[in-house]
Specification:
The chain is mainly β. The protein is about 0% helix and about 55% strand.
Length: about 325
């Protein structure tokens, strides 16, 4: 069989087949927990729309070789049903490879102790594609070169999430069906690729320094099939000032250090803009030095039923 090369494939190998090669990663994971855990749906107590755009290894090439990802999500609590619902859709392309996923989330909420326990599930579809025009090869008649094709499969996920006023912790498993995609070559050859199960764990704490400043340290664990070579940990600490400005810093194992800034644009803080910059620290021979991410979120208030929550003021703060 004659040899051919997929544009950027060598770069993916050189990057050590990191976790992000199957599931897209986002530096704004703290604001995007429904993406990797369906049990987070509705847990914020308000309806929220979110858009995220990520340009990875910015400037790697001028023809779209580096990964580019877009995500849209929506979730809202259903207070009378003690539950939450949501939807997530994302698209990613790098070189000749593309991925598209659409899924709906449902979570049932239980009052447990001083917080709320959520049990959630997601159902959707995921597709992967190959664009033959993006390949670079030695012999264009090589029968092993995949034709331009998209393959779609069902996708399931499940998770649990617990949240108090200060603490939050979650565990989830995505791609439970381990979808397998089949690609036909120009000849009679076929190839298969499996989207393996991905496992996530997150823990964080909101520490109130004073009435105007809250610090939120968090850790996100990610693993593809518990493979040590496809396991990563992200850490982040974010400072929220007057619930209007935020600034944070973090580290992604075997990938990058990052900084995040956020700003609420309306008086009621319902519209929020966020920006993240990653400085790549590993695999620099196969990547460009920066990745960038932009977030836009809009939050609708939800009218609560029953007793009003207590309003804390500096005057009566213990």
């Amino acid at each position: 069989m004659k040899r051919f090369t997929l544009f950027l494939f060598a770069s993916v190998i050189a990057a050590g087949q990191s976790f992000a090669q199957q599931d897209p990663r986002f530096t704004h994971y703290l604001y995007n927990q429904q993406y990797f855990n369906p049990a987070a749906a509705g847990m914020d107590g308000s309806a929220r729309f979110m858009m995220l755009g990520r340009a990875q290894w910015l400037g790697y090439n001028q023809d779209g070789s580096a990964p580019n990802t877009g995500l849209f999500s929506f979730n809202t609590p259903l207070l009378r049903a003690s539950s939450g619902v949501g939807a997530v859709a994302y698209y990613e392309r790098f070189a000749a490879v593309s991925a598209l996923a659409i899924r709906g989330n449902y979570a049932y909420h239980l009052n447990v102790g001083s917080g709320k326990l959520s049990i959630g599930a997601s159902v959707g579809m995921v597709s992967q594609g190959r664009d033959r025009s993006k390949y670079k090869f030695i012999d264009q008649n090589d029968p092993s070169i995949p034709a331009s094709v998209n393959s779609m499969q069902p996708d399931l996920g499940a998770g649990i999430y617990y949240k108090t006023q200060k603490l939050f912790v979650g565990l989830s498993a995505m791609h439970l069906t381990a979808p397998t995609f089949t690609y036909n070559g120009q000849g009679s050859t076929t190839s298969k690729e499996t989207l393996v199960r991905h496992y996530y764990g997150i823990v964080g704490y909101n520490y109130e320094v004073n009435p105007t400043l809250t610090l939120t340290p968090s850790i996100l664990y990610k693993s593809a099939n518990f493979n040590s070579k496809a396991t990563s940990i992200e850490g982040n600490i974010t400072a929220n000032i007057n619930n209007r400005f935020s600034i944070g810093a973090g580290y992604t194992q075997q990938e990058a250090v990052n900084v995040l800034v956020g700003l609420s644009l309306l008086k009621d803080n319902s519209l929020r803009l966020g920006y993240a910059l990653d400085l790549v620290t590993s695999g620099r021979n196969a990547k460009q030095s920066t990745s960038q991410e932009l977030m836009l979120a809009y939050q609708l208030p939800v009218t609560l039923k029953g007793p009003r929550p207590a309003i804390r003021t500096p005057r009566y703060r213990k």
